[in-house]
Amino acid sequence: MADFLQLLVAGLATGAIYALAAIGFTLLWQTSQTINFAQGEFVMLPAFLALIAMNLGAPFPLAALIAILGAMVILGLTFKLAIVDPLIKSGPLPLVISTIGVGLLLKDGVKEFYSAEAQPFPKVFPETPFSLGGANFTYAQIAVLGVALAVIMALNWFLAGTRTGRQMQASAQNPTVARILGINVNRMIFYTFLINAILAAVASLLIAPSQFAKFSQGEQLGLAAFVAAIVGGFNQVRGAIVGGLVVGVADNFAPTLLSAAGLSSAYRQALPLFLLVLIILFRPQGLVGRKEERAI
Amino acid sequence: MTMKTLGSVLLTAILAVLILAPADLTGLGLPWGGFRRSDIDVLTLWLITAIAAMGVNLIVGYAGQETLAQAAFLGIGAYLTALMTKAGYPFVAAFLASGLLSFVVGILLGFPALRVQKHYLAFVTLAFTVFAWLVFRNEEWLTGGVTGIQNIPRPTLFGFRSKPALVYYWFALAMTVALALVMAWILRSPWGRAFTALRENAIRAESLGVDVRTYTLLAFAIGSAYGGLAGALYAPFVEFIDPSPFALGPSLLFLLMVVVGGMGTQAGPFIGAAVAVLLQNRLEILQSSNPAFAHLSYLLVYAILVMVLMAFCPTGIVGLWQRITAPRRRPHADDKGPILGQVKS
Amino acid sequence: MLRTVSFALVAGLGLATSAMAQDTIKIPNIIELSGAGATVGTNWKNGSSMAVDEINAAGGILGKKIEMVFIDSASDPGKARVGIQRALDDTPIAIFGPIYSGSVSATLKLTEEAQVPQIIGGEAANLTAQGSKYIFRTSFGQNVSMPKIANYLRDGVKAKTVAVVYVNNDFGKGGRNAIIKELEARQIKVVADVSTEAGQADFAADVVKVKGANADAVFVYTNEEESARFLIEARKQGIDKPLIGETTLLGQKVIDLAKDAANGAKGHVGLTVDAAIPAVQEFGRKFQAKYNYKSDHNGMKGYIAPYMIKAAAEKAGKLDAKAIADALRGLTITPDKTPGILIEATWDETGEIDRISFLAEIKDGKQIITETLPKLKK
What we know:
The complex is a heterotrimer of chains A (296), B (345) and C (378).
Chain A: H1 2-32, H2 39-55, H3 60-87, H4 92-113, E1 129-132, E2 135-138, H5 139-161, H6 163-173, H7 175-180, H8 185-211, H9 217-232, H10 237-260, H11 270-282
Helix pairs in contact in A: 1-5, 1-8, 1-9, 1-10, 2-3, 2-4, 2-8, 2-9, 3-8, 5-6, 5-8, 6-8, 9-10, 9-11
Chain B: H1 3-20, H2 37-62, H3 70-86, H4 91-116, H5 120-138, H6 140-143, E1 156-157, E2 160-161, H7 165-188, H8 190-200, H9 202-207, H10 212-238, H11 248-261, H12 268-289, H13 298-312, H14 316-325
Chain C: H1 2-14, E1 24-31, H2 38-57, E2 65-72, H3 77-88, E3 95-96, H4 101-114, E4 118-120, E5 135-137, H5 142-156, E6 161-167, H6 170-185, E7 189-196, H7 204-213, E8 217-221, H8 224-236, E9 243-245, H9 252-258, E10 266-269, H10 278-291, H11 297-316, H12 321-328, E11 332-333, E12 345-347, E13 353-354, E14 357-363, E15 366-373
Parallel strand pairs in C: 1-2, 3-4, 4-5, 6-7, 6-8, 8-9, 9-10
Antiparallel strand pairs in C: 10-14, 11-12, 12-13, 14-15
Helix pairs in contact in C: 2-11, 3-4, 5-6, 8-9, 11-12
């Protein structure tokens, strides 16, 4: 039981970060049919922006702010204007290819011009351990989970409870009707790119203290976000949240499940993908998705 | 001379250059010392890469699907060939078995995936690639695990030992030409024409009696078989295999090179593979010989090239060439491309 | 088809090779500059570049300046092989790298055929057992380090049961196989055998498994980053058993990353900047000043490689690949004649290295050497 609790909380904390990345992923998909193969690198980069700011003498809170703003400029504005806009008319494949290129560029750029080494990252929350039900946690772990969930709730409120949020939903569901209703669809699309950048930056700042900042981190994060988005339901923010948590938890229980099934724990990485294939074959709309529902 | 005959003359000329240029011709009284062994190897790698890319091109450029599994099929072919030739089977048997096994796996993989929704093949192949990579890594009794398989013999064919780099290059060249001809024949057959119809207008093709799913499935399986065949050539070429070249990253690079070259064209895979293999090789030499270029890593340059090319010419280098040489012709061979995501209505 | 022509021609022309100047000697390094081994390769590159700068400033080797050439293997044995072949075409006096054992395995036949000494960073046990007389290690093979660790577990830690945690790559798997063999030979029971992946998201499940095994000691054999993350998770879940490791558990990188959680980790270290040897500490200072971070053992391995060639070439009296390899076999290089070797080292006929090594512990965020183990053969 203690082990179960230990793994569940660890899985949820990582899963909440996957959820942030997966939400951004689905948002881009819904509003602009962009499948962002660089999503993992989007989560990798902001931590390095914060590190650069700190190297220049900024205290951590300022550095974190700079990371978020920097992400909005680079991963939101620039990405939209330089990569997505010129390509959107050419159909999805060139755009997919281009995002693969963006991923390579960010990854190799950080490696060449910052460092190939994993970088320690300031601990924002106290690492003080405490015991509960026989399992050991740290406050930092709980705080990461809390912050991630708070950000997700804030986003939900924004999408459902504000005028701009509802306009974004309308634009994603039916751009033509939205235009007729006088909504500036392009602006709404632009907002989703900014939101994606903010989510990526938050995920980056939350994950870097425990996983460190490393140029190659995006490979695993991107795959997790991708799987989470599909498992949850590709056209649902709710789906991305569920998917993220499921992937995070599944990964932590994988060694136990595998050894129970008589398989080597070396196949741990296969479990989320196995989930993905099952979902595709038997429930293509995702765990919580329904075929016809609001998009965001 | 018509364009067509000019084309075949030039094609023959290229082939002649590819056959002769790497060889030392001083024995024939010509002032040409040939290529160095490492450059010959780079050319061989280019040919093998191009074979796998031809397969991707069939899947992506003609059948309008996406595959993220070509490196995994390369691995299937490479491991099977390594195991069979080391167990004493002739290379020819291993080569054919590699193609066949990849074909069968392609069918098994594609059948359920294509049943669901068009773009889900991409997701299934992604999962498959990671899974195959894990099997290569973990099934030590079969694949040697992370330490790989060593001393894979180069075949002896028709009494010729293909151990020397140049001989193996010629052998790979012969196989590449043969497979390119097979591909050209496939695309020119009524069967291949159905693809073109499919790509231009799927609904119309279907109404004309083209069974979209069967055709797409076969295209995926054949494309994957090309991956397996390339792998069968790769294993004896490197004489050593381990799981790293068969991971997800290299699979993405295969997709990239086909689009960069120009998907849906027969020259595209060759050009894309050339850019990927030769550019890397030349850039690394430049990088290592001149400190000013120390940070000019191949992947950085490649990434920027891909992004710029996609922004200005999504039809790839072949498309760019067409645009330059024949501005009056139909500008884009295929702008619609395959649809990884469905456009929402 | 017409359009194919010009591309083929462009590609073909690109292959024409340029003439090389012969006033300097080139030494190609085929190392992991991208992919999974990028960190390792970068350390090696920095170390070897620094050594060559020093050698050149002091007049080079037998009067010739050295120029380093770096070829990225992308951590891929196939690419490493192509890289080595390219390097061999220039008939170099020596080849440095690769560092990943899989890449060394894939290439050692080539250097053997060409009779060029290959100074490797690989530590897998089987490398020196393959009969090549042209590979030379810069650090202990696992066949040497694992018996030392097993002895330490038996005599120092007095463990009867051990949980083994390893990273599932050629380095980790090789080490795991070697240590399990050594432990069994000493009647120490392996009660948990935990495989981890480089860059995996969580270590919670692995630590739960290790904790459940309740072994007398935990042997951790992963790369630096994963070592740090494992240590953090182990402290969090309150593992109070000794955490024992090899060089990669006790490195500066681990301390930088794991901070307090690294305290208390113990084990065997083949090469370390923290050794109480003036030459080593001087190296550490120079490296820190030049690259602004603390070198790990791969930086040191890269650093001694050019000095190995220098000493061997001076012994052979000529800059010839085969002569250098012959000179290196059975050679003992001492710091009083070649300060850059840092610690006296001897190479045997198979290219295995012998030198002193250390038992170390991390205390208050510093690696402390607790014991110096002598060379195996005097």
